[in-house]
Amino acid sequence: MRAIRGEILYFTGDPAGGSADALRHFADGLLIVRDGRVAEAGPAEALLAKLPADARIEDRRGRLIVPGFVDTHIHFAQTDIIASPGGQLLEWLARYTWPAERRFADPDHAAAVAGFFCDELLRNGTTTAAVFPTVHRVSVEALFGAALQRRMRVIAGKVLMDRNCPDFLRESAEDGDAGSRALIARWHGRDRLQYAVTPRFAATSTPQQMRLAGRLLAEHPGIHLQSHLAENRAEVAWIRELYPEARSYLDVYERFGQLGPRSVFAHCVWLDDTDRGRMAATGAAMSFCPTSNLFLGSGLFDLAQADAAGVRVGIGTDVGAGTSFSMLQTLGEAYKVLQLNGQSLSAERAFYLATLGGARSLYLDDRIGTFLPGREADFVVLDTAATPLLARRSAACGTLAERLFVLMMLGDDRAVAETWVMGEPAWRRP
Fold this sequence. Notes:
By secondary structure, this protein is an alpha/beta fold. It folds into 2 domains: 2-67 and 371-428, Urease, subunit C, domain 1; 69-345, Metal-dependent hydrolases (TIM Barrel). The protein is built from 15 helices and 16 strands. It has helices at 44-48, 89-102, 107-123, 137-150, 173-187, 207-219, 233-242, 249-255, 273-282, 290-295, 303-309, 327-340, 347-361, 388-395, 400-410, and strands at 2-11, 23-34, 37-43, 56-67, 69-75, 126-132, 153-156, 159-160, 193-199, 224-229, 263-267, 285-288, 312-315, 379-382, 416-421, 424-428. Strands 5, 6, 7, 8, 9, 10, 11, 12 and 13 form a 9-stranded parallel β-sheet that branches. The chain has a 7-stranded mixed β-sheet with strand order 3-2-1-4-14-15-16. α3 (107-123) runs parallel beside α4 and α14 (388-395) runs antiparallel to α15. The protein starts with a strand and ends with a strand. This is Guanine deaminase. It comes from Aromatoleum tolulyticum.
């Protein structure tokens, strides 16, 4: 058993729903962990009396303790091309992504990047991520191996592409299916790892590959599906040419049995109300990726329309078109995107989306994203005085909401003092 004392914040629901109980905050709180899981979280004064005399108490007073961040869309194979300039989506793929992903046929390269990638997530307070590797089985093996070593919760799967990509990244639909099945058998459900069927996007998969991907999802209850959807207007037009029989880009995925619980689609910028209604009805989720949408000039995500339709929404950094591993920085950019769209994002809602909201998008809220009893004890210790400006501005704040807003606008990896995984320290700031 361990107990961590500090300012504690977590969510039991979406604060935008108006429930007074959705946000729980204890200025002087205690998080009690047993066997890697939350036993209790609440006011320190009440809970300290329950502890045995020899209980180990980690004193983090003056720091803010929140559940580990949940990144619902990120590419580990694009770590080395982050901040590569020029071009919108389709040009960026050809110029940077394909050459970078080619290197992941090499197991040593894949392992080196996977280790760096997982450490970078932890350094930024991210403990759960839905991740795109490459078409190469060794890239998936490397990522799962690195995550397993660190006990992180990672959802990933071999990328499926059998057309409209370079020959060195293309494989047959049948080979992609066979490779996915082998990886599911080896990795899905191993410790905290989960498999995701991963068609890159409808343009790079033939109808046959899309059929096989839908069949994989149907035949393996509990696995996920991840892909890209309606990111860029030129991409949407291309999908219309490739699948003229479909009502919309989203309809392509639905025709092949890929919409449902545990399906998460990145971007979702250029959708209509019918699309959003189908996502809500089937239980599919959106990953809002603000930094990459701005960087590639893709468009502005419409959170208000997603909320009105009742769609699950999480936050994705989308590295490498996304420009930061930091969920704090990503939340700050999400606020700006919504401002441009005539909407507002409260700090409370932002931190919900980065924690419990992300967990709900991935259908993992029974395990992560909050400090309710029995949940896995992944959490981040945040330092609101990590930089001189952050310290000065935070000191002038009068409310929790204001402090959270300042943290997400001025904070970055430097504000992450510690990251804990399953009740044990996984990273500490030197």
